[in-house]
Design brief:
Elements (H helix, E strand, L loop, with lengths): L1 H22 L9 H8 L11 H21 L9 H21 L3 H6 L5 H29 L1
Helix pairs in contact: 1-3, 1-6, 3-4, 4-6
């Protein structure tokens, strides 16, 4: 389970770093605010990136989730009760699994129809969320079994 935790945490830290970059005004993978927003957020009619506080908030949540993944595997020790760490892991699993499933629903596609987000969401973003959610699920099962 150590490898699962490290892989989940690594992906989450990379995603957190991307959100910090966007919060600081970065526009990759686009060329300007509008093209980047259409590529990474995809909400209907979006023409600018989410606010810096929103980007930094997501980055912080992803960083915390990375720490929780490592704590579930016993790689790091957090000054929190084990039950709270497991609850955080359950929350992360549910959020990522839910987001991954949502990406394949018609309702989500109506909310986020902009290209290239819609295509990339089906091909990459939603499957990645499902994998992260599955990783948390495995860590929780392993944690309960020990």
């Amino acid at each position: 389970m150590t490898l699962v935790a490290i892989l989940v945490a690594l992906v989450l830290v990379l995603l957190a770093a991307l959100h910090v970059y966007w919060g600081l005004g970065g526009v990759w993978p686009g060329t300007d605010q509008k093209s980047c927003a259409r590529a990474i957020a995809g909400f209907k009619g979006i023409d600018r990136m989410p606010s810096p506080p929103a980007a930094f908030g997501v980055a912080a949540a992803l960083a915390v989730a990375a720490l929780i993944a490592l704590a579930l595997a016993g790689i790091v020790t957090l000054p929190l009760p084990a039950a709270l760490i497991r609850l955080g892991g359950l929350g992360a699993a549910l959020v990522f699994l839910g987001r991954g499933i949502a990406g394949f629903t018609p309702a989500w596609r109506r909310i986020t129809p902009e290209m290239p987000f819609a295509r990339n969401d089906r091909l990459y973003f939603s499957p990645l969320c499902l994998l992260i959610g599955a990783g948390f699920t495995l860590l929780l099962i392993q944690g309960v079994a020990t």
